[in-house]
Amino acid sequence: MKSILSANKANRLFWLGRYAERGYIMLHLMRKAYDEVIDVPVGEVPYSEFLKKMDVYVSNEMTTSYQMMDQIYNPETVTSLRSIIEMMMDNAIVLRSEILSESFSYIELCRDLIRAKSATRETNITELQPITDWLLAFWGCIRERVHGDTYALLEIGRLLEHLDMCIRFDYKYYRIEETWEMIQKYTRSYPDMFDAVQAARLHALIIDKEAFKKDPQDYKNKVLNGINCLVLV
Amino acid sequence: MKELLAARDSVNRWMERYGVRFGVYKNGVFNEQIFPFDAIPRQIPAKEWEMLEKGLIQRVKALNMFLYDIYHEKKIVADGVIPKEFTYESKGYMPECEGITPALNVYAHIAGIDLVQAKDGKWLILEDNLRIPSGASYPMIARKVTRKACPQTFRDNLIADNRNYGMLLKQMMDDVNGGRGINCILTPGRYNSAFFEHSYLAEKTDAILAFPGDLIVEDNKLYYVGLYQEKIRVGAIYRRVSDEYMDPLAFEPSSLLGVPNLMEAYKAGNVGVINAFGNGVADDKGIYYFVPKMVKYYLNEEPILENAPTYLPFFKEDYEYILNNIEKLVIKDVAEAGGYGVMFGRDMTPERLEEVKQLIIKEPRRWIAQEVIDFIDLDIIDETGNPSPRKCDLRAFVITGKETKVWKSGLTRFSRNPNSFVVNSSQGGGFKDTWVMEKD
To answer: Model-level pTM?
Structure first.
């Protein structure tokens, strides 16, 4: 179903989908990192794996625990959860009539909570659980109420971000393959939204299981690059 | 009512989650604020509403006839009912609109008429807002939330359902559109003070929310440019951008908010503009004085609703009265809105009073003066959780497409400061729901 969308709104829908998924997975992985830190051997730097995978420079000038807090709350840090939620809102606020007030309200709730918790730099990460719950509710609401191109753009954003995070955090190959299959449904149904050459290249790369096994870092870099060049909106 | 008061905090939380805010620029910095909602509604009995409805329809009809006349035959000026100084010298008068007839002959499709109720129960008109009146979305969403929070209250009281504002607006937009294309709401952008309203009304009317740059004019027709550069014809545009910024080729050349050549498309009758261009001449505070005369002139009827007692320094007798009684009057700059340019004589120092007198002497056409109306207080729940009286006004919304209808509700604004008469949201006011009762 065709929706009436400007190029700017299409772009914002795509990025809303990406940021909402990034926020959701990031928070999940942060909780995991907080749990895993208990077992980090003495002498090793806690949280360093998580930070590296998020492309965060691990500084010697501050503790990684402090850097983790920055990754959650610092609005000046572009990769922080706070920044990601602010970006979600920045996109959602101009899309109310496309995503409808009910879906919008879950983004608003996430933004209000992260701002409130940033003010006190809440150290108990379980206090951020409502953000996970609201993001799930947001997607539920989107699936229930949004259709056509509008839905497709949000979902394309979500799936590409999902793929990005699966690659960064070394998810098992089948997860990557599965996500790519879902993306392909959209490359077929909405060919105008994708760069066909990039889509073919990315496809060739993703199905090359051997390359994944042989040089995971090289494979990672190529796929992450491919993801960022895939969508035309 | 107890149920409603108990739910006050949860209602306010729901409004927050829906992003019910308005933006304010202070010292060049944009801040979004919650528009405080008070749970005690204003209640208007059915009989009283019936009178208000008739009076508002009558007034808006006359104002629309005036606008048509001013941009066409100008009979009301020729007949000496309104001096030309209040029409062609008004900042809101647009010579570019001369001879243009909008769809259905309607200029003010959405009129926001501000009223107060005096202590003797009489309703008085304070202002006619005919350019881009805002505020309907707040009671709309407040009602949506309070109905869910307190169903029993709404079951027990016979209150007119106000959730039809989106439908009224859509019907009017469709009337103006005449099937020429899609309906659009044009917003200046997310940093506009009323952006919540723009986006919420787009949602509730199924109109496309357009941003500057989304619209183009080709062959004197207006189009929305889609994702693949496809051009989708626009039949009606409900613009939330001031006249002077709407077309850089016709008005302010530096404007980036408008659509080049929109005026040509409008002139050619290819797009309906809501509200029409040039309405500022009728919502000038100076012209307000003449609205009861317009009612008599165009409709040959006695005005059902009266103005607040108003003086125009333009007239010699009024001029002298104002200068002699300035300390007990409210002085208003005719070109200002939103509570700006309103000065209460009783609050001014003798030096300031003298300065204002000099301003009036220098530019008598720029000012009006009104008696301070001792309008009724309505209780709000104050910061301590107790009922406390505050000054309140009512903005009624009158919608004109093929027919003129009054929305059975309105925005009741209250002053948060117990000593203030200024209720505007930009001045820190809050709002209440307005219940129009189905029975007395």
So the answer is: 0.93
